[in-house]
Amino acid sequence: MAAKKGKKALGDKAKGGGAGRTPGLGRVNGHHQENGMENMTLFEVVKMGKSATQSVVDDWIEAYKHDRDIALLDLINFFIQCSGCKGAVSPEMFRHMQNSEIIRKMTEEFDEDSGDYPLTMSGPQWKKFRISFCDFIAVLVRQCQYSIIYDEYMMDTVISLLTGLSDSQVRAFRHTSTLAAMKLMTALVNVALNLSINMDNTQRQYEAERNKVVAKRANDRLELLLQKRKELQENQDEIENMMNAIFKGVFVHRYRDAIAEIRAVCIEEIGVWMKLYSDAFLNDSYLKYVGWTMHDKQGEVRLKCLTALQGLFYSRELGARLELFTSRFKDRIVSMTLDKEYDVAVQAVKLLTLVLQSSDEVLTAEDCESIYHLVYSAHRPIAVSAGEFLFKKLFSHRDPEEEGLPRRGRQSLNGSLIKTTVFFFLESELHEHGAYLVDSLWDCASELLKDWETMISLLLDEPMSGEEALTDRQETALVEIMLCAIRQACECHPPVGRGTGKRVLSAKEKKTQLDDRTRITEMFAVALPLLLAKYCVDIDKVTNLLQIPKYFDLDIYTTGRLEKHLDALLRQIWEVQDKHTDTEVLEACSTTYHALCNEEFTIFNRVDIARSQLLDELVDKFNRLLEDFLQEGEEPDEDDAYQVLSTLKKISAFHNAHDLSKWDLFTSNYRLLNTGLQNGDMPEQIVIHAMQCTHYIILWHLAKVSDGSSLKGDMVNLRKQMRAFCLMCQRYLNSINNAVKEQAFTILCDLLMIFSHQIMSSGREQLEPLVYTPDSSLQADLLNFILDQVFIDQDDDNNSTDGQQDEEASKIEALHKRRNLLAAYCKLIIYNVVEMNTAADIFKQYMRYYNDYGDIIKDTLSKTRQIDKVQCAKTLVLSLQALFNEMLSELGFNVDRSTSAFCGIKELARRFSLTFGLDQLKTREAIAMLHKDGIEFAFKEPSPQGQGSPPLNLAFLDILSEFSSKLIRQDRRSVHMYLERFMTVQMALQREDCWLPLISYRNSLQAGGDDDTMSVVSGISSRGSTRSKKSKPATSSKRKLPEGDWNPNPFKSEENSCSSSDAVWMNREQNVQTPVMMHSPHLTSTVLRDPKKMRPEDSYTPAFTMPTEQHSHHTQVTWMLTQRQQAEARQQQERVSMHYAKMRNHIRRGSGLMEDDEEPIVEDVMMSSEDRLEDINEGMDFDTIDIDLPASKNRRERTELKPDYFDPSSIMDDSVLNVSMF
How does DSSP classify residue 29? Predict the structure, then answer.
């Protein structure tokens, strides 16, 4: 006790007489009594956040000194209330009960209705509360560090309570107490660190005093320093005991807790301890926990591990002490750069960058290469982090001889670094991703990438003696990197595929953008003609160089007096187009002219004159060559064909971006195409480019007509030209050349879309004469092209080249082309340009070509259903009928329903059925029409084996039964009666195998009978609603019924239920009437149902009704069938009742009620991912099953809460469990 008193005296002295204040003055139990905050608990004060944490803690300390039991009780209740518990610890409980008993009592009083507690609640108030909660603990320990924490009462009680709560089965207690214990530990680490510093200072003072000569030595001071050091050592030992208790009692158990948030808290704080007090914590005994937890299954926890390690590697001194840890867990960190969680991958790359800075020898070449390729990642944060790693690795190290190099130019340091960038780009072998590489390096190496002066010097200047010149391949890569850097500087946003779009630039960024654009224009206005002259014959280089002018500030040509350089550029562009016939180069020339021909700038006239001269030469040359080429009686040679083709390619390329209407090219191109059809020997490339050029002619003509700048007769002329060209393309669809057919098909699809009824939208009704609707022959030709060219096996495509790799690439390219062709045709279906029933031939291919075109067919089906549900349903059944007919033609009339062909059709029908979703009322009419068409098809053809045998297509009813579950009860009755119109008495009595499709289909229509909601709506939803303790009002979950439509007795007379004269499709006109079978009696419950609990479909009249006429001469037969069906119905009712009783019993006694609620799972294999939930669940209202559970069993976490239920195998990968640390 003497020692304790000494400590307290020391603390009081350090606090400056704080104990001299009157205890509790102006406050009660540490709570404010002003500003309307009387008698508020600590929790309420901290939650409100109106008082400074320092003053709240000071109030509590004064209360503790006045009466430590009452103050400590307040603190205990603070932790209990912060956990969300409504109970409170009373003074009697505090005095007479153990911690375990108190925790058990609080657990019983915990509010079971809410799964949330303060640490997990959303909103700014609760986020602020978490911060205030942590601050309160830190300030409490800091204010008590000189006296109270050593009194062997306050800290012992708090640590004991938090340790007990952290072992609770209640997640709220466990989470809150773990966070509190970890923050308490962090505060104690700070205290221990201060003590350690004081001890070192005291030791140094003691040594300095003792080393003095005896005459100058102060023995009293030595004694005082010795006593102080001893006291500090005792305090240090006591703090270490407290930290030990928290670490072993809380951390060791909770770092592998079942809840990810708790594990993350532990790992975050241990990182803080190791950084704050590295002498005590930065060793293998503590690092192993971080290493193990890097294998955690939750990304949140893995992320905390990486951020904790980053804090250590930021310091070179600490990083040097992590060699053993790094060697052991380096491979794991490298593998985390490919983590499925992007945030984790980003931090893993950043951590490895810090590791690289601390030591170059840790990461091997293989480790670095695995990070290098991430600069091409589509996720920009990962790519930028990898770019920083690459920059640190390759560009940050400078040799001593490089220090004196010039700042710019070929011999500069940047010149060497730019060469290194080029070498890396070539070694990565991803030459089409230069924009991605530049974007990845932009944040850390923008100064290097903007050194265009050095890049130009490397391309134009001759190498110095002894310097190795760039190869042609390296120069091509440098030109590409230079263009990408120019684009990045001028557009200031990431390349396509990386980023969410253009962002708003700040004023500083806009100024930088303008400055860069000005510098680019001034530099390349002079250099670009020289570069084009040097690389004039190189396709790749010229194509990239010609894209630079579109980033120019064209005013600088005038203000900077650079007109002569503009003339030089125009001459070089003319030279390039004259020497090249490659489409990419010609299109680049056309784009450059388009960028320079801007009427807003004074250089427009100069450029326009040059462009007109160029086009005049091209058109004159083309007309002259065409006359010679088409002369009668002469066989055109290859040289003439090449000249015509090269000129036509140039005209087509320029016509893409420039209006050439004044040269009247339609006549010559149409003549060329017509001659090709008549003679049949026209080279395919000439035909393709003539079609393309004519297509551009019509589009430019349409643009002039649309904006009103055309003459009076232009619309009539355009209409004639467009229709004549469409007819020409239709004739070319029958060409023997696939490339020509593909071009004709593509252009036809484009023209049909452009000149469809959509052309009149947006107030353009004056264009109505231009609307062109394809006739049946054109629609048939387009569909035949799709079936012949798209739906083919991959091996049938003969476009592949030699070599396995080239062959694979060729197959991918061919598949991409076929997908584009199919998408173009499907667009015609979606926009109602061609008849929707033509889609039947597309839909029937869904199963066979699912891998290649499944997504396109799904989207087409979804869009057509949105346009017209009924017509879409008729199209679906039409596709199934087509497949059925194909099967009959292949396998013969005797259908074996076990064959793969029949099973495939049935599976396709099942998938089609799933696309209708769960809302039967929305698709009611569509499903009815589908069944009608299917029944008619099944009985359409008589049996080829004569009377008494089933109809030829009867097996189709087995396929049609896949859609029976989509019928509501009233429609099932009506469909069943419609089916009976096609049946004879003999058919109804047949039980042979060949009649099984009819039997199964009838059963599918009768299944569910009076209560089909269990299988349609409620049966699916019942699993997802077991948690609700309070049942909803009956009306809240039911669809509101239209007034006057509800029939309280749906099983009234046949006349009332089925006598409507407004039948949708039941009134068929037949010369010979088939007998009508009586419909099966429906199961009715002996318990009257409450009208409020009727199913939604009870309130609707059938989508179709049955005429009331009966045939008396079949009365006895129908009576016999009725008796048999009634007996079957009674047996079915008994089975349903027994099954329902068992199901209810299982629900009451099932063991799964303690587990997390399971969400309804809806299978939908046909819907596109965007529309899946919207189309399936729209308008659904689920009933619920109310299940009464014991109060203590109604929390979501109950299955997780077992005594030390924290099995590492449930949290970490198996690779961690059997591996030792070091």
Answer: T
Alpha-carbon Rg of the chain, whole angstroms? Answer: 42
What is the average pLDDT across 861-878? 93
Q: Which of 1187, 1164, 1160, 1185 is nearest to 1174 (CA)?
A: 1164
Proportion of the chain above pLDDT 90, given as a percent = 50
3-state secondary structure of 603: coil
Tokens representing residue 676 in the block: 């090709």
What is the separation of C-alpha 397 from the centre of its chain, rounded to a whole number of angstroms?
Answer: 40
Distance CA 42, CA 61 (A): 12
Q: Identify the bridge partners of residue 32 per DSSP, sorted by sequence position.
A: 27
Using a 10 angstrom Cβ sphere, with 0-12 exposed, 13-18 middle and 19 or more buried, the burial of residue 61 is buried
Helices (H), 982-1100: 985-989, 996-1006, 1013-1016, 1018-1021, 1054-1058
Q: How far is CA 965 from the centre of its chain?
A: 33
CB burial string 182-196: b at 16+ within 10 A, e below: bbbbbbbbbbbbebb
Most confident of 39-53, 994-1008, 1063-1077, 1100-1114: 994-1008
Question: Using alpha carbons only, what angle is made at residue 870 by residues 865 and 873, rounded to the nearest 5 degrees?
Answer: 70
What's the 3-state SS for 492-533? CCCCCCCCCCCCCCCHHHHHHHHHHHHHHHHHHHHHHHHHHH
Q: Are 256 and 301 in contact (CB under 8 A)?
A: no
pLDDT at 1096 over 60: no
CB of 753 closer than 8 Å to CB of 700: no
The CA distance from 886 to 901, in Å, is: 10
Report helix angle 638-657 to 684-706, nearest 10.
Answer: 30
Of 1006, 1013, 900, 1002, the C-alpha closest to 954 is: 1002
Distance CA(824)–CA(822), nearest Å, equals 5
DSSP of 235-270 = HHHHHHHHHHHHIIIIIHHHTT-SSHHHHHHHHHHH
pLDDT at 72: 92
Tally of residues, the chain: 1222
Longest CA span, the chain: 141
What pLDDT shows up at residue 947?
74
Q: Which of 1012, 1037, 1035 is nearest to 1025 (CA)?
A: 1037
Class of residue 321 by CB neighbours under 10 A (exposed 0-12, middle 13-18, buried 19+)? middle
Stretch 366-378: mean pLDDT, rounded? 93
| Mean pLDDT lowest among 101-115, 217-231, 686-700, 769-783 | 101-115
For residue 296, what is the DSSP state?
B
How many degrees, rounded to 5, is the angle at CA 935 between CA 932 and CA 941? 135
Between these two residues, 295 and 708, which has the higher pLDDT value? Answer: 295
Per the model's pLDDT, the better-predicted residue between 846 and 1143 turns out to be 846
**How many CB atoms neighbour CB 687 within 10 A?**
22
For 27, the enclosing helix (H) or strand (E) is strand 27-28
d(Cα 661, Cα 709) in Å, to the nearest integer? Answer: 13
The C-alpha atoms of residue 673 and residue 529 are separated, in whole angstroms, by 39
List own/partner pairs for 902-908 with CB under 8 A and 24 or more apart: 902/955, 904/847, 904/848, 905/880, 905/959, 906/958, 906/959, 906/962, 907/847, 908/844, 908/846, 908/847, 908/880, 908/883
Contact 566, 601 (CB under 8 A): no
DSSP state of 1212: B
- Cα distances (Å, whole numbers) of residue 1079 to 553, 956, 1019: 82, 22, 26
Q: Is the pLDDT of residue 686 over 80?
A: yes
- d(CA 498, CA 438) in angstroms, rounded, equals 12
- pLDDT, tens only, 194-223: 999 999 999 888 888 888 877 777 788 888
Burial class of residue 736, CB neighbours in 10 A (0-12, 13-18, 19+): exposed
Instruction: Say if CB 870 and CB 929 are below 8 A apart.
Output: yes
